[in-house]
Amino acid sequence: MYFVRIHDTNSEDDKKHLNALSIAALIMVAYLMILIISDNIFTMASWVRIVTFLFLLLLLIATPLGIAFKAQMDDTKRLSLTFSSERSNSSLVYDPKPPILAAYHELPPGDTCKENDHDSTSDGDLQKDMTLQQAICTINFWLLFIAMICGLGTGMAAIDNISQVGGSLGYTTIEINSLVALLCIWNFLGRFISGYVSDIFMRSRGLARPLFIAITQAALSVGNIVIASGFPKNLYVGTILVGACYGSQWPLLTTIISEIFGVTHLGSYILSVRVFGYIYDKAATSSVCHLF
C-alpha cells in the first residue's frame, strides 16, 4: 500500500515487544473472563466490585503503555549509541587519499542474459498484485467469496441472535449477558490464536492457510448444530465454538487475500481518490457549507 510508510526495525526487539503485548492481552482476557464468571457464582458488594474492577483494569491498561514506552526508550538508546559510535569512528579514522575505483569488468553475454532474466522475474512478481477488476475474473476470488458467505455469514447470524436464542431456551438475563460477554472473548481469542497457529504449521509442516479455513468452518458448523440442539447448557459450548471459529477466519482470510492477490491494492479501494476526491470536492465548493 503506497500510503503506508515502512520503517526499518530490529526484528529481535520487535518480536520481544510483540510477545510482551500479546501476554498482556491474554492476561487482560483472563481477568475479564474470571470477572464475568465470578458474577454468576459469587455475590459481592457494589463498592468492592467497583474498586477491584477499576484498580485491576487500570493496571492492565497501563501495562501495554509501559511496554510501548520501554520499546521507544530502547530504540532511542540504540540509535544514540549507533550515532555516537559512528561519530567516534569518523573522527579517529581519516584517510585523505581519494577512494580507489574498482576496475570495470565487462560482463559476458551469458551473465547479461541472467540479469535480464532476473529483471523479468521481478516484473512478473510485481504483476501478481491484482486490482479488484482483475481479481473478480479469477476462480480464487469466487471461492473465497463463497467461503466467506458460508463461514462469516452463518457465524454472524448465530452471534446476532444469541440473546434471543438464550431467552427462548429459558436462560436468565444474567446468563444471557454473560454468554454475550464470553462470546466476545472467544471471538478475540480466535482472532489472536489463528494467526500464530497457521504461521507455525505453515513454516514447520508446509500446511496452507486455506486448510485452516476449512477446519474452522467445520468446527463452526458443529457449533451451530450444538446451539440448535437445545440440550441443557448447550449455549455455553456452542458459543465457544462459534465465537472462536468466527474470529479465527478474519486474520486467515485477510492473509490469504494478500498472498493470492497481492498487497498493493489491499484495503485501498475504499480509500481511493474516488472517495476522498468526492468528499474534498464537496467540502471545497462554496455552495456546500458542510458534508452532512
TrEMBL record:
Residues annotated as domain NFD4 C-terminal: 133-265
Keywords: Membrane, Transmembrane, Transmembrane helix
Taxonomy, superkingdom: Eukaryota
Segments crossing the lipid bilayer: 20-38, 50-69, 139-159, 179-198, 210-231, 251-272
Originating organism: Dipteronia dyeriana
Primary subcellular site in the record, as a coarse category: membrane
GO CC list: membrane
Protein's recorded name: NFD4 C-terminal domain-containing protein
Residue ranges the record marks as coiled coil: none
Membrane topology listed for this record: Multi-pass membrane protein
Localisation: Membrane
InterPro entries xrefs: MFS_trans_sf (IPR036259), NFD4_C (IPR056555)
